[in-house]
């Protein structure tokens, strides 16, 4: 009985202290958190921080200035308790499961945050759902991500390419459109167009792939896909270009996209606009098309509905004040009112605003934003399960191997891919 009385008294005292300490104060007011921020983002993040601190004047938000992938590398090499790991940080959707499995991510109240931010028609059907594992939201939507097609206008005119219509990949010269098809990041735009599944899960959760089928059992669209890829490789191989050189390919793409060269169309992301504008000489000489304006064997190219989220470190999950402050900061970073400022600083396009939110932004940025939204609408959902990580090297190594094995036709080229994927699938069954 004495023990019960002491417990009750302690509880009452604790309640009294909390009540007195929180009277008249905003949530998170006395908390201190850190946020990962890339160098170019700092001015925008400073403004977002200032808006949060106006409502929470005794709070502290520190910056850890580092690249998003560099920050993820630190997490992978250590754990969430490392002082160099921020309390709030950006993550790509495909890292969610790995980070969750390593107990890095705190659960957030995504639905409430979405209501506070506004603009989400169906939170779970978009990136909100992509950042949900089991019944928990583990990150908040930051930006949509997909690929678009950039056009060097002068080069397109010289090559007679009409960019007002659908553009068939097979009708172009081998350098007229350049894409790193051996890199799955670009390659999936081609495989998706043909409905060729590199790795998926069936209704029972079993891993499946089209890449282990016999060539004769592939669909006609799948066969045409590999005929197109084989012919693309053959032309580049015979003309000794660097496209199939994993190291030199990037420099080759940059050199060929300059005005007066043979390349008119290049696939890349919205983040590449500024660099490509400089490469073609002016913004007026750079056109941006939605990816689905390019076809392969009559089928529109289609990338992924990818994106990034803002996550909270699991080490602060039990600290309500820090969690509240983290949520407030995230909500302010993606505040639709500042969508244009966010894009100018980071190149990030919000999911929860209409394209009209970017009216008045400079012409080049508007081109990129409009094309990205249209490409995103026709893109397919990105696979997020951890086993997909094996596809990157499996696809790339098998397609790059064509330059060593010199396949004589599409079937032989496909069989190189088939052998690699059979080996990959075997590792899942051990």
UniProtKB/TrEMBL annotation:
Keyword Hydrolase listed: no
Domain of life: Bacteria
S-adenosyl-L-methionine among keywords: no
Signal sequence bounds: 1-19
Cellular component per GO, a single term: ATP-binding cassette (ABC) transporter complex, substrate-binding subunit-containing
GO molecular function ontology, one term from the record: maltose binding
Key words, A-Z: Signal, Transport
BP GO annotations: maltodextrin transmembrane transport; maltose transport
Family label: Belongs to the bacterial solute-binding protein 1 family.
PANTHER family xref list: MALTOSE-BINDING PERIPLASMIC PROTEIN, MALTOSE_MALTODEXTRIN-BINDING PERIPLASMIC PROTEIN
Name of the protein in its database record: Maltodextrin-binding protein MdxE
Lineage: Bacteria, Bacillati, Bacillota, Clostridia, Eubacteriales
Annotated gene: mdxE
């Amino acid at each position: 009985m004495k023990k019960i009385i002491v417990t009750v008294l302690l509880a009452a005292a604790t309640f009294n202290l909390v009540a007195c300490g929180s009277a008249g104060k905003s949530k998170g007011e006395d908390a201190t958190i850190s946020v990962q921020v890339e160098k170019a983002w700092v001015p925008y993040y400073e403004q977002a921080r200032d808006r949060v601190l106006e409502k929470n004047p005794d709070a502290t938000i520190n910056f850890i200035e580092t690249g998003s992938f560099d920050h993820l590398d630190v997490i992978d090499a250590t754990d969430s308790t490392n002082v160099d790991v921020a309390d709030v940080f950006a993550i790509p959707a495909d890292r969610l499961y790995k980070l969750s499995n390593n107990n890095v991510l705190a659960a957030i109240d995504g639905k409430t945050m979405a209501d506070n931010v506004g603009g989400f028609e169906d939170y779970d059907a978009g990136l909100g759902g992509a950042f949900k594992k089991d019944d928990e939201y583990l990150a908040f939507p930051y930006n949509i991500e997909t690929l678009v097609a950039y056009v060097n206008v002068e080069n397109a005119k010289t090559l007679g390419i009409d960019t007002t219509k659908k553009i068939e990949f097979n009708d172009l010269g081998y350098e007229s459109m350049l894409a790193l098809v051996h890199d799955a990041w670009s390659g999936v735009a081609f495989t998706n167009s043909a409905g060729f599944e590199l790795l998926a899960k069936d209704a029972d959760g079993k891993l499946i792939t089209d890449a282990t089928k016999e060539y004769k059992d592939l669909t006609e669209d799948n066969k045409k896909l590999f005929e197109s890829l084989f012919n693309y490789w053959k032309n580049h191989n015979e003309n000794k270009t660097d496209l199939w050189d994993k190291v030199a390919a990037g420099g080759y793409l940059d050199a060929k996209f300059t005005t007066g060269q043979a390349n008119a169309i290049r696939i890349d992301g919205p983040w590449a606009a500024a660099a490509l504008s400089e490469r073609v000489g002016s913004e007026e000489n750079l056109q941006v098309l939605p990816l689905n304006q390019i076809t392969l064997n009559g089928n529109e190219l289609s990338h992924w509905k990818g994106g990034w989220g803002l996550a909270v470190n699991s080490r602060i999950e039990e600290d309500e004040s820090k969690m509240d402050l983290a949520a407030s900061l995230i909500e302010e970073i993606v505040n639709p009112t500042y969508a244009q400022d966010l894009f100018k600083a980071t190149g990030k396009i919000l999911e929860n605003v209409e394209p009209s939110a970017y009216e008045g932004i400079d012409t080049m940025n508007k081109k990129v934003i409009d094309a990205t939204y249209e490409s995103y609408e026709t893109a397919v959902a990105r696979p997020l399960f951890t086993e997909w990580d094996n596809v990157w090297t499996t696809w790339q190594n098998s397609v790059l191997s064509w330059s060593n094995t010199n396949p004589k036709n599409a079937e032989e080229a496909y069989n190189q891919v088939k052998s690699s994927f059979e080996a990959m699938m075997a590792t899942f069954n051990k």
